[in-house]
Specification:
This protein is of the alpha/beta class. It has a domain of 153 residues: 3-Layer(aba) Sandwich (Rossmann fold), CATH 3.40.50.150. 26% of the residues lie in helices and 26% in strands. It has six helices and nine strands; from the N terminus they run ααββαβαβαββαβββ. A seven-stranded mixed β-sheet has the order 5-4-3-6-7-8-9. A two-stranded antiparallel sheet has the order 1-2. The longest helix is centred in the first third of the chain and has 15 residues. The radius of gyration is 17 Å and the shape is globular. The N and C termini lie far apart (37 Å).
Length: 231
């Protein structure tokens, strides 16, 4: 049975179940890797948004999760995952845990996920949500001054859920040979989704389309002072 046609238990709420099926149909029309659709079918997005937003959990829109942060719209999440060209054996670094939803999806698609977050409240919420879903191959860490998580490098894939003015060299250095990095690059107002592939000869760059994310904070990204938070 196709993942998009599987019945879903949403505490008996048929409207939420229908909204999820609509989201899966939308995503399925854009991604090449249908494992992403299956992962999104398996992960309940409503567990990663505030309770007062449960009815909108499957809207194709970014939703606030507190602390000035958002959970990205499902289609953008799916397109970023698709651009990573993930394999089941991959080790993945997820920068900007936020709600933990993207990390949960990565856990369905890869062997191991390291995810880092700066905001303590979001770290605890994400850990609780991931634990409740038995995402045992996803490990949440508090972000340090250095971008990424170099102690566990190299990674087969890195995904960044925040925009930066350029692709930080620190993250390229944390990629394995043949590794892929997908992140938004641009200004504080708008960015372009960008994929970097590390090769024996350097890096290959691909631009995948416009997007808008909260800013990546830290060295070689945006400073904490005077930053603009995107919605």
């Amino acid at each position: 049975m196709d993942a998009r046609d599987r019945p879903a238990d949403h505490n008996g709420d048929p409207r939420l179940a229908a909204a999820k099926q609509e989201m899966l149909r939308l995503v399925g029309g854009y991604v090449r890797d249908q494992r992403i659709v299956e992962a999104m079918a398996a992960v309940p997005r409503e567990q990663f948004v505030p309770e007062w937003l449960h009815a909108r959990a499957y809207d194709d829109a970014a939703l606030p999760i507190g602390e000035g942060q958002t959970i990205s719209q499902p289609l953008i999440v799916a397109m970023m995952l698709d651009a990573l060209h993930l394999r089941e054996s991959d080790r993945v670094l997820d920068i900007g845990t936020g709600s933990g939803y993207q990390a949960a999806l990565l856990g369905k698609l890869a062997q191991e996920v390291i995810t880092v977050e700066r905001v303590p409240v979001l770290i605890e919420r994400a850990r609780a949500a991931l634990q409740s879903l038995a995402c045992d191959n996803v490990h949440v860490f508090a972000a340090i001054d250095v971008l990424g998580w170099p102690d566990r490098a190299p990674y087969d894939a890195i995904i960044v859920a925040a925009g930066a003015p350029h692709v930080p060299r620190e993250l390229i250095d944390q990629l394995a040979d043949g590794g892929r990095l997908v992140m938004p690059v641009g200004t504080l107002v708008s960015q372009e989704l960008t994929r970097v592939t590390k090769t024996s000869h350097g890096v290959e760059l691909a631009r995948l389309g416009p997007c808008a994310f909260v800013p990546l904070i830290g060295k070689n990204a945006w400073p904490e002072r005077g930053r603009t938070v995107l919605r």
